[in-house]
Inverse folding.
């Protein structure tokens, strides 16, 4: 089954749907890459939200910081400069 999946992904592929809808060749890879990027983006925002809450900072401001200053560079910046955990020095 895995072999068939790899053959499908690595071969020139096309998917034909109803009403003439079709995906061919590199379109499948572009959609897969976009799905991966969106998944990582949503996951990083979720983690940031929970991390800001754990550190006693405003979750909304942390999310706005990431969204308005340019993800993923701002996410790396948060990892580097994030405040210490509450109760720790």
């Amino acid at each position: 089954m895995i072999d068939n999946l790899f053959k499908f992904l690595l071969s020139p592929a096309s998917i034909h749907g109803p009403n003439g809808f079709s995906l061919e060749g590199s379109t499948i890879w572009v959609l897969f890459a976009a799905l991966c990027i969106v998944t990582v983006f949503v996951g990083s925002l979720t983690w940031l939200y929970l991390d800001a809450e754990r550190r006693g900072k405003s979750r909304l401001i942390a999310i706005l910081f990431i969204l308005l200053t340019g993800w993923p560079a701002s996410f790396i910046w948060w990892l580097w400069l994030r405040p210490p955990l509450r109760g720790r020095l």
Residues 26-54 form the longest helix (29 residues). Helices lie at 2-10, 26-54, 59-69, 73-81.
